[in-house]
Amino acid sequence: MWRTNVKVGLVGLVVIGFYTTIAHIIPQLESEVPSSLDLSGATPEALVSAGDQLFHGAGGCTACHGLGTRAPNLLTDHAGEGPIGSRCGTRESGVDCKSYLYESLTDPHKVLVSGFEPIMPDISRQLDNDQLWALVAYLESNGGTVDVTGADIQRTATASAAPAGGAPAGPVAGGSTDPQQLLNANACLGCHMLGGSGGAVGPSFDGIGGRLSADQIREAILDPGATTAKGFEAMAGVMPTTFGSQLTAAQLEAIVGFLSRQR
Amino acid sequence: MMTEVLSLLQQAADTSRAYGHFPGIGGRGAVWIAAEVHLMFAAFVLGVPMFAVITELIGIVAKDSKYDKLSKEFTRLLVFAYSATALWGGLLLFFLTTLYPKFWQHMATVFSMSMWIYAGLFFVESFTLYLYYYGWDRWKVGRAKWGHWGLGILLNVWGTTVMLIANGWLTYMMSPPEGVTAEVLPGQVHLWAAIANATWIPINIHRLIANAVFGGAIVAAYAAYRFLSATTEEEKAHYDWMGYVGTFIAISTFIVLPFAGYWLGREIYEYNQQMGITMMGGFMSWLWIVQAILIGVLFLAANYYLWLGMGRIPGAERFRPYTKWMLLVLVVAWIVWGTPHTMIASRAEFAAMGGSHHPFLSVLGVMSAKNTAVNFMILTTFLSFLMYRRANRRPVVPWAKGGTIVQGVMFVLAAGVVLFYGVYGYFVEAIVRIGFSVYQVGAVLACILGVTVLDIAMLRGSESRGEIQWGKMPDRSQYALFVLAVTFTWLMGLMGFARSGIRQHWHIWEVMRDTSSQAATPALGYAANMISVCVIIFLVLVAFIFWLGGLAERTAANPQAAGGH
C-alpha cells in the first residue's frame, strides 16, 4: 500500500517538476508597469528618450505598430510617405504634427489610416499626460522635428484634469483631479505647508519635488508609516493611512504629479 | 481646521490601507494561492455533479445498479470536497479584505446584492447536496428515485448559478462595461451591466466545459488509486470501469474546449485589442508553448491509456499494428505544436542562424503549422476512441463494409482539408490565414460527428467478440490517469494565470490601477512556481479526501472492524 502511495506521489512530483522546468527554460518576460513621469520642464532629448522607452516597453505599441499588418509602421516607411515624423503633419488638414499625434493617442478613431481597422484603444486610459507627450516627442523624432514643449504638457494636463462631461463625483473632492482642490478637501494643508500657509505637523510641500521622487511621494501618501521624514520622528503615525482607499487612481496621480513639481 | 484633521485621524484609526502586508510571499502570493486552490475545488464540486446525475439517469433507465453505485461514489467525494471549497473560499475572502481593502471596497460596492445571493445559494446548495447523498438509499426505487434524481438536477442548477455569479465578478475585473472609468464611483455602476460584461458568457461556457473535463480527470485518478490498492478482482473490475468512464468524459469534453477557448480569445480581442495582443503576441506569447507541451502530454497519456485498455478487449488485436503509426503522428504533431516561432539561443547561435528565426524550424512555429498539428492530434485521438469502441463488436448490418469505407473516406477527407489549408496558409495574407482555422476545425468536427452517427447505426444489434475483461489492466495504465489529472490541474493553473495576467497592472482594467509594490505581472518562471505550489496543495488535499472516502466506505461495510473490537 505504502509503495503505491510513494509511486503515485513520485509520478505527480515528476510531472509537476517537468512543467515547472519547461516554464523556467523559456524566456522570462515580465510585464512592465509604466512609471510615472514629470516632463513639464524636460528637454526634448529627455522627452524622446522617455518616449522611446514607453514605445518599446510598457506602452505596448510595438505589438501592432511595426508588424505592418494590424497597424501602420511608425518607425519605418508606410505607403511611401516615410516614417511617422515626416508624415504626421500632413495627415489632417490644419492640424500640426504634434497635435495630430496627441489626438491619435487620445482619440484614435477620429482619423483612420486607410486600409486599417479601428482597433487602437484610447491610450490616455493607460498612460498619463506626461507619458503621452513623451510618446509624441519620440514619434516626431522619427523623421521629423521635436517641437513638444512644457506648455503643451501643462495645457493638456489642465484640460484632462477637469471632470469630463460632468463626470460623476469621486469619493473625495467630488471626483475632481485638481490637485489644489484635492489638497484642500483632504485637509492636507492642516499639517503640511504650501506657499507659506498651512500647518507644521508634517514636512513642508514647498520644494518636496526636489527632496523626494514621485514614487517616494506616492508611497508616503499610500503608506505613510513606511518612512518618516527627518525631524518629524515625533509625529510618526499621525498621518492618516486612508488615502489609498479614499482617492481614485487619477486623484492620487494628480496629487503625486503636483507635488513632484514643487521644487 | 484642527477638527477636520482630528476627524481624518479618527477615520484613519477606523479604516485600513490600500494594501495589507503578508509575510514571505506578499499579498499577491497569498491571494493567488487561496484563489487558485479554491477554484480547483470549485471546479471539482461543479464538474462531478454533472456526471453524477448523468450516470444515475443511465442507471435508472438501463436498470443497472452498477451506474447507481458509481454515481453514489462520485457524490460521496463531493461531500468532503464541498467543505474544502468553502474553506478556501473563506480564506480568499479574508485575504482580499485584509490585503486588498481598497479593491475589495470597490467590488463589494458594485456587487453587494449578488454577493448576498451567492451566500444564500451556497446554503441551498449545501443542503441539496446533503439531501442528495444521505437520501440515496432511502429514495432508491420507483417515483422516489426520480425525485432523488431531481435533487441531483437541482444541485447542478444551484452550483452553476453560483459559478455564473462568481464569473460576473472576475470578468468585470477583465472587461468592465464601457462607461465605467476611474472617475466613476462604484456605487454608480449598474449591477447587471457589471455582471453581463463582454467576457462573461464566453467564460461561463468555457468554465462549464472545463469543469466537466476536470471532474472527469479527478474521478479517473480516484478510480486509478482505488484500482492500485484494490484487493479483490471485483474491486479491480469496478475501479477499472470507473477510471474508463471518468477518462472518457474528460477527453470527449476536452476535445470541445479549444473551440470555447477560441471564442473567449476572440471576445477579448473584440473588447480590447491591446489586451488580446498582450495575451497572444505580447509578454505572454511564450505561455502558449508551455500550454502546447501540456496538451501534448494529455493527448499522449489519453491515447496510451486507450491502447493499453484495448489489451483487455477481445478482438482488439486487429488494431494493434496501427497504434505505432498513430503514436508517430501524435509525437510529430506535438513537436510541431511546441515549436516556438523565435528561438532561445546564444549570441553566437543567433549569428549563425542569421537572426532569431531559425531558417527551418521557424516555418513550424507559425499558426498554419500549429493549427494543422492540433487538428491531427484530435483526429488521431478520435480514431483511438473509435477503435476502442469497435474492438469487441462485429457489425451485422449488410452495409457494414461500405459503412466502414465511408468512415475511412471521412477521415481521409478531414485530414486532407486540414493539411491543404495548413499548407495554403503559407501563401496568403495573415488576415486570410486566420479564417482557414475555421475550415480546419469544421472539417474535424464534421468528421467526428459523421463517423459517430454512422458507427452508432452500424453497430446496432452487433455481435460480441467477447466481453471486456474489466480489471485486467496493467498498473502502468493507471499511472497514465494520474498524469492526466496532474496535467489538467496544472493546465488550469496556467490558463488562470493567462486570464488574470492579461490585466497586467490593473486590478480592474483601466478603472483601478494596481499601485502596490507587486503590480508588475511576473514572468512564467515565477508563475510556474506558484502554479506548482497550488497544484501540490490541491492534490495533497484531494488525496486526503480520497483516503477519507475509502475510510468511510470501509467503516460502513464493516463497523465492528472499524471500531477495533
Write the layout of secondary structure elements.
The complex is a heterodimer of chains A (263) and B (565).
Chain A: H1 2-25, H2 44-56, H3 84-87, H4 97-106, H5 129-141, H6 150-161, H7 179-185, E1 193-194, E2 197-198, H8 208-211, H9 214-222, H10 243-246, H11 249-260
Antiparallel strand pairs in A: 1-2
Helix pairs in contact in A: 2-5, 4-5, 7-11, 9-11
Chain B: H1 2-14, H2 26-62, H3 65-99, H4 101-134, H5 142-174, H6 191-195, H7 200-228, H8 233-254, H9 257-271, H10 273-280, H11 287-309, H12 320-337, H13 347-353, H14 361-364, H15 367-390, E1 393-394, H16 400-424, H17 430-458, E2 463-464, H18 475-501, E3 506-508, E4 512-513, H19 524-557, H20 559-563
Antiparallel strand pairs in B: 1-2, 3-4
Helix pairs in contact in B: 2-3, 2-5, 2-7, 2-19, 3-4, 3-19, 4-5, 5-7, 7-8, 7-9, 7-18, 9-10, 11-12, 11-15, 11-18, 12-15, 15-16, 15-17, 16-17, 18-19
What is the share of helical residues of chain B?
Answer: over 70%
Indicate the low-confidence ranges of chain B by residue numbers.
1-16
Low-confidence stretches of chain A: 162-173
Query: How helical, in percent, are the residues of chain A?
Result: 40-55%
Beta-strand proportion of chain A: under 5%
| Mean pLDDT across residues of chain B | 88
Order of helices and strands of chain B: HHHHHHHHHHHHHHHEHHEHEEHH
How many strands, what sense, and barrel or not for the largest sheet of chain B?
Answer: 2 strands, antiparallel
| Whole-number total of structural domains of chain A | 2
Gross morphology of chain B is: globular
Shape of chain A: flat
Q: Kindly report how far apart the N and C termini of chain B lie.
A: 78 Å
How confident is the prediction overall: mean pLDDT of chain A? 79
Strand content of chain B: under 5%
Give the class of chain A from helix and strand content and strand pairing. Answer: mainly alpha
Distance between the termini of chain A: 73 Å
Number of helices of chain B: 20
Q: What's the helix count of chain A?
A: 11
The neighbouring-strand order within the major sheet of chain A is: 1-2
Radius of gyration of chain A, taken over Cα atoms and rounded to an integer in Å: 24 Å
